[in-house]
Write a structure and sequence with these properties.
- By secondary structure, the protein is an alpha/beta fold.
- It is 21% helix and 30% strand.
- The strands form three sheets. The protein has a ten-stranded mixed beta sheet, sandwiched between helices. A seven-stranded mixed beta barrel has the order 1-2-8-6-4-3-9.
- Strand 13, helix 8 and strand 14 form a beta-alpha-beta unit.
- Helix 8 crosses helix 9.
- The relative contact order is 0.14.
């Protein structure tokens, strides 16, 4: 057994066992309430700079495979679970979770009271954390946590964004995911969509492609001229990690593109960037929203949608000009912004994740709405 110390910046410590990895890792300690989907969570670029605690008690029992990934590899800084299952019992499993973490240089800790961690974070808020298997003095690890970098003011999206422009034909994504989920033929009418990659997830790209979109992926630091050069029918602004106010260059690019009246759809970090581009402000939530069971009210239909979420920052909906911006969705747990649309431009966004990996499918209609906005624009083909 390798002892692992989890130390928080407020002085709170927990001791568990490292079932994978060795050394030290730092990040903001957060929790996720999803019952499944640990592989999707680990590979979601939005978790860059975060150590994830999973509230479900037993993790790892179905292993890891090459298909259920949301990016080229894991981005979370570490994983904390109550009990790690050393037996992976699933016909799709190709590797154990522990071996996967080891292969990617990540520390996994179990034999921890994850309920106590979650209650502490819910009370005190998400905070800086260090996990160490090499330091035996908890007080020393606490000081390392206090000295580590937080998320406020950090531009993490540039660290997970693509380094160059490319058309999405990633061979690591199985071909069967590039057609519609019902296995019907892809739509005959195609649209060229420019994707501003702030840390985009594969399943977003899969769903956009299945809805008739040919995708050109751009680095988060791309200029408006670069993006417009592909003659897009629409613009998609992706999810991503870190503080949206730390990427003013992306906000300026979006503001320039809004003047072109391109049909535009933003998800999560993209929602926050649009809020800033509209002249609003963002702020850090106390402990964020992470899980596959977050209730959201669609104010336009009156329906409640159960959504998948992962964000620690939020748009201040009161900071938006009500003459231009309509709030379309709100979180039923705390009333925060979950969606908006521009009243005069073909632009809308949501804070939650309609691509639902992991999570429910209640908000999948949003991809249809995006295609609907492009129906009146010239196609590229």
């Amino acid at each position: 057994m390798t002892k692992a110390i989890i130390a928080l910046e407020d002085g709170k410590t927990f001791t568990g066992r490292a079932f994978a990895g060795h050394g030290e890792t730092a990040g903001e300690l957060v929790f996720n309430t999803s019952m499944t989907g640990y592989q999707e969570i680990l590979t979601d670029p939005s978790y860059k700079g975060q150590i994830v605690t999973l509230t479900y008690p037993l993790i790892g029992n179905y292993g890891v495979n090459a298909e259920d990934v949301e990016s080229s590899g894991p981005h979370a800084a570490g994983l904390v679970v109550g009990e790690y299952s050393r037996i992976a019992s699933n016909w799709r499993s190709q590797q154990s979770l522990g071996d996967y973490l080891e292969a990617n240089g990540l520390i996994g800790v179990d034999e921890i009271d994850t309920r106590a961690i979650t209650l502490h974070i819910r009370s005190k808020g998400a905070m800086k954390c260090v996990i160490s298997t090499t330091e035996s003095d908890p007080a020393v690890v606490v000081e390392k946590a206090r000295a580590s970098a937080g998320l406020v003011g950090r531009d993490l999206s540039s660290e997970v964004s693509t380094g160059s422009v490319y058309d999405w034909t990633d061979p690591s994504v199985p071909a069967e995911f590039r057609i519609r989920a019902d296995k019907s033929e892809p739509p005959s009418k195609r649209y060229r969509v420019a994707v501003l990659d702030c840390g985009v997830k594969y399943n977003i790209l899969r769903l956009l492609a299945s809805h008739g979109c040919d995708l050109t992926i751009f680095p988060v630091g791309s200029s408006p001229e670069d993006i417009l050069a592909c003659k897009p029918d629409g613009l998609f602004i992706s999810n991503g990690p870190g503080d949206p106010e730390a990427v003013p260059y992306a906000v300026q690019t979006i503001q320039a593109l809004l003047k072109k009246e391109l049909p535009t759809f933003g998800i999560c970090f993209g929602h926050q960037l649009l809020g800033l581009a509209f002249g609003g402000s963002t702020y850090k939530l106390k402990f964020g929203h992470r899980g596959g069971n977050q209730p959201v009210m669609n104010l336009r239909t009156g329906k409640v949608e159960i959504t998948s979420q992962n964000h620690g920052f939020c748009v201040d909906k009161e900071s938006l000009n009500a003459d231009d911006i309509e709030t379309t969705h709100v979180n039923l747990n705390d009333g925060t912004s979950e969606g908006m649309r521009h009243k005069n431009l073909p632009v809308f966004s949501v804070q939650h994740h309609p691509e639902a990996s992991p999570g429910p499918h209640d908000s999948g209609y949003l991809f249809d709405e995006f295609v609907g906005l492009m129906e009146g624009t010239p196609t590229h083909a």
